[in-house]
Amino acid sequence: MENRTSQDMTADFRKTANRVSLVSLALNIGLSLLKLLSGIISGSGAMISDAIHSASDVFSTIIVMIGVTAASKKADADHAYGHERFESIASVILAVILAETGIAIGWGGISVIIGGNYGKIEAPGLPALIAAVVSVALKEWMYHYTKKAAKRINSDALMADAWHHRSDALSSVGAFVGILGARLGLPILDSYASVLISVFIIKAAVDIFRDAAGKMVDKSCDDETVEKIRAVILSREGVRGIDELKTRLFGSRIYVDVEIRADSELSLRVSHGIAEDVHSSIEKEFPGIKHCMVHVNPDE
Q1: d(Cα 3, Cα 171) in Å, to the nearest integer?
Q2: pTM here?
Q3: SS3 content of the chain, % helix, strand, coil (to 5)
Q4: Which of 12, 47, 177, 215 could form a disulfide with 193 if both were Cys (CB 3.0 to 4.6 A apart)?
Q5: Fold for domain 4-214?
Q6: Conformation bin of residue 168: beta by default, left when phi > 0, alpha when psi is -120 to 50
Q7: Judging by beta carbons within 10 Å of its beta carbon (0-12, 13-18, 19+), is residue 140 exposed, middle or buried?
């Protein structure tokens, strides 16, 4: 059974994620319209393409909201361990979208470089350049805002969405370089910038995918976390040692199974009290742990 700390954590998780997602939705819609309008007025194809990219972020944020809502549902008869893995599924979907974005940006740059079509690009107007600067600043702020919230509530889907904001900021950097280059008579700069930016975006997508996939196949916690859990267990009165300690990631939460040793002459009631103390101490010290199972072995 989940303790009160875990329930509070779930409520805070859902509330924070949905608030950040709503902010992202509103800003992405406004930014998409700004880019589209400035692109049309300035005759900038790069800015119009960037507007479409920002519009795609609306879709990714909706995926985050769906994933978070599903992941925060309480356990039921069909899902006795809860629904946290739905968030990992959302992260995998976002990683794929992010990778497709990076590939598209990179391929577009490579195609222009190989084809030599950059000489036909006309210099866009100043509004497109201003819109690119606004986009970079706003998207970078959204990245840090979303990343901070994702770290606070330990949300994989929200972190993936933060990187989607960062990919849009990098895309806008490419648009800025392209627009500025075209105005200076060097439109090829846009293509080289796009190829470089795509590498960073694809790397972020791969990292997100690997992390989310690992949490869907019962991957163990990192060594540092395991050692901290071990230290807490050994610090409890009555614990003579640890026979086995296993952890597994379940979405953004952690399950712990531990076998401790206690004096074989102790009564069942006292041994149970030691196990309860270990259980409570672990879940209190590590709010990210959803459940801890403690088994007591006799220390002969």
Answers
A1: 44
A2: 0.65
A3: 70, 10, 20
A4: 177
A5: Alpha-lytic protease prodomain-like (1.20.1510)
A6: alpha
A7: middle
